[in-house]
Predict the structure of YjbR protein.
Amino acid sequence: MFDDADPLLGRVRAFALALPGAAEKISHGHPAFYTTRVFAYYGGSVKVDGVYQRHEHSVLVLLDPGERAALLGEARCYLPAYLGASGWLGVDLGDDTCWDEIGELIETGYRRTAGKRRVALLDGGRA
């Protein structure tokens, strides 16, 4: 379901795996980045009229409700199948992607799932 040599995946992977204790696994055919819980996926889909439409070049992140609501109005963002109901947001990636923003979104998902010790390490503190 994904090309390991995809340069967009490479950028997402670099952001995600730079976070303290982060690792990668394949979940449901997609790269998933996690510590004790998944904080980002690469690739997603939406269900439209009973048919799944793939968003192969996107990142799925778990955001707080206010941030997610603000981004949902943008054409590049979508509610991913299955995960959207649990607070996840999909963001399509392409040539015009602001990678600083993607890094911040990945970090937000990390902060929501990684636990206090890892977040303290991220912030430069001791675990």
In short: The chain has a mean pLDDT of 92.
